[in-house]
Amino acid sequence: MDVTETNFQTAVLDRSHTVPVVVDFWAEWCGPCRQLGPVLERGAAARAGKLDLVKVDVDANPRLAQTFRIQGIPAVKAFRDGQVVSEFVGVQPPAAVEQFLDSLLPSEADGLVEKGDEESLRRAHELEPTRADAAVALARILMQRGEADEARTVLARVPGSFAADGLLARIALEAAAGNGAPPPVPDLPEAFAALDAGDHERALDLLLTALPNADGARDDVRRVVVGVLDELGVEHPLARSSRRRLASALY
Questions:
Q1: pLDDT in the model for residue 188
Q2: Domain boundaries, the chain
Q3: What is the value of pTM for the model shown?
Q4: What is the C-alpha separation between 231 and 226, in angstroms, rounded?
Q5: Catalytic status, residue 33
Q6: DSSP structure class, residue 10
Q7: SS3 call for 173
Q8: Architecture of the domain whose range is 160-251
Q9: Is 103 annotated in the active site?
Q10: Catalytic residue of the set 3, 12, 30, 134
Q11: For the domain 8-103, what is the CATH code?
């Protein structure tokens, strides 16, 4: 499929929110482009329905070539969710092209995480132990059953995840209030109940209100808040307002 400046938005950027779109930037006079093109076409045909392949003639569409900084052709860029996620320049061996295309497809773990049941999440965690979305979802199921130790083990394998770190902090706070002891922060049980019910606004309000007086639990409460904000996402309105409150409570 040939794409131009007129339909690039629809055929590539919009479409890439549904399936990966591979764009072959080429020109009629380019011998290496004619070598690579059939290899890409065979690879895309073998993965029909899983990704799209389109071609952009850089001579006929100079603004697209400029926008995506095409300095040599053939240039191949893969788009997902409107962004370039992988690329290469020049003719590549067929095996390298196959590997490139396969890297764009959902992995087995992706499909298992999407299913979301405990068996699927356990399998995804086995396949990719450091994968945060699988570990966090599985840990939540375990926590709901009261299996905090196993949840802690699952989460401890995930480096650099604010969501996982937030759940670990929650486990620590709940453990501190175990055996009939009062919670380290009075409103924590209500805040956690709101979180479990999906009422993030109520939960964050309680946690942020309690934070300045949390004493020895201050850092754990902060980690819980940061984990919730991470799951909401940077652009979520509640996350934006809560980040300002968090900064005020801490500083």
A1: 86
A2: 8-103, 108-158, 160-251
A3: 0.67
A4: 9
A5: yes
A6: I
A7: helix
A8: Alpha Horseshoe (1.25)
A9: no
A10: 30
A11: 3.40.30.10
